[in-house]
Design brief:
The chain has 345 residues and is mostly beta strands. The protein has two domains: 18-137, Nucleic acid-binding proteins (OB fold (Dihydrolipoamide Acetyltransferase, E2P)); 143-330, no CATH class. 7% of the residues lie in helices and 30% in strands. It has four helices and 16 strands. The chain is globular.
């Protein structure tokens, strides 16, 4: 049986687009506007940092604007954990306006009252200063560290701006139906998909398999007895890989993450997952049935600096042939898996 390989070039999209495609269609990425205002409220949480500013007028008057930007997890990867937005502070915000013309903006750059500039994403460039904060951190690593080869696969792995994302080539409403060998029923589901309203992770709903493996935040691979754990920062999810399936009762009830059985083959961790009821191949509308089976290959470099990854998805209800996705992670010392702290709203 032929395997269809989906080319996964670097997706040059802000992190919010990777996690919430409906947000990507909400703001006009081709326009940059500026707002000068006073901060009235701050919500410093995943999945998006949000704050409100009052623009124009005197105290108690003026227009209120809701500002949204990248996730708290992304700010950590940009060395911006010490940035504080204080209520009452006056700032300038540059970003993408709402397509609907409402008082909403996706922030790409901030100029604080003390004249420090904050760049909110690896895809953004400094606007007012040559010494902007947010242009360092693990997000900018282009090569992994080779100082601890003895650890092999067992460490925290990072996705960076230099690593591809495990995503379809298009991730918004312009999704190319010819990219994958879809069944007629899957095409009907995609045709009915509305990226504005059909977000499977709305209200902090955790992802399932295979979608969780697209997450762009740190992931730890660790041993727990005879099993292996995959800890992802996004949604604080933990996948258990049963390395000796004969020693435990095999799960038969479907769950969003499914039931995973692993084995080591010449240094590569091979994982087969079934019994998945997440219902989504991705967030662009491609469905996934409970008949799906996913085989993953985690292969660390000999020096431990990077880990290559392949995923082969077989689902006769969705695809007429198996589909293969690929990506890799880098080892960046000092990076840890942090609490996700997702906040609804």
């Amino acid at each position: 049986m032929r395997i269809i390989a989906a080319t996964l070039a670097l997706i040059v999209l802000p992190p919010f687009a990777l996690a919430h495609h409906s947000t990507f269609s909400t703001f006009n990425g081709e326009v940059i506007d500026e707002l000068d205002g006073e901060i009235t409220q701050v919500v410093w949480r995943n999945p998006h940092v949000r704050f409100t500013i009052r623009v124009g007028g005197n105290e108690g008057s003026g227009e209120l604007w809701d500002i949204e930007t990248t996730s708290l997890s992304s700010l950590r990867q940009l060395d911006l954990t010490n940035v504080v937005l204080a209520v009452g502070e006056r700032i300038i915000v540059a970003g993408n306006p709402s397509r609907a013309g409402s008082n909403d903006m996706w922030a790409t750059n901030l100029l604080l009252e003390d004249q420090r500039e904050i760049v909110l994403g690896a895809e953004s460039e400094p606007r007012w200063s040559d010494q902007a904060l947010g242009k360092s951190g693990s997000e900018y690593a282009t090569e992994g560290d080779a100082s601890e080869p003895e650890r092999g696969i067992y460490r925290v792995w990072s996705s960076t701006a230099a690593t591809p994302m495990l995503l379809p080539e298009t991730v918004d409403e312009t999704f190319d139906l010819e990219t994958y060998p879809l069944t007629d029923s899957a095409r009907e589901v995609i045709a009915a998909h509305n990226p504005q309203t059909d977000n499977p992770t709305a209200n902090c709903t955790p992802k399932g398999m295979p979608t969780i493996m697209e997450q762009p935040y740190p992931m730890e691979i660790a041993q727990q007895g005879e099993n292996i754990l995959l800890r992802t920062e996004e949604y604080d999810l933990v996948r258990t890989i049963h390395m000796n399936s004969e020693s435990v009762e095999v799960q038969t009830v479907a769950t969003p993450l499914g039931y995973s059985v692993g084995r080591m083959e010449a240094g590569t961790l091979v994982v087969t997952t079934s019994h998945i009821n997440w219902g989504h191949f991705d967030q662009a509308g491609i469905p996934l049935s409970e008949a799906a089976e996913i085989v993953e290959y985690f292969t660390p470099a000999e020096d431990g600096s990077r880990m290559d990854y392949r995923m082969i998805v077989t689902d006769p209800s969705t695809f007429i042939e198996p589909v293969e996705l690929q990506k890799h992670w880098l080892y960046v010392p000092g990076v840890t898996v942090q609490p996700y702290e997702c906040l609804v709203g």
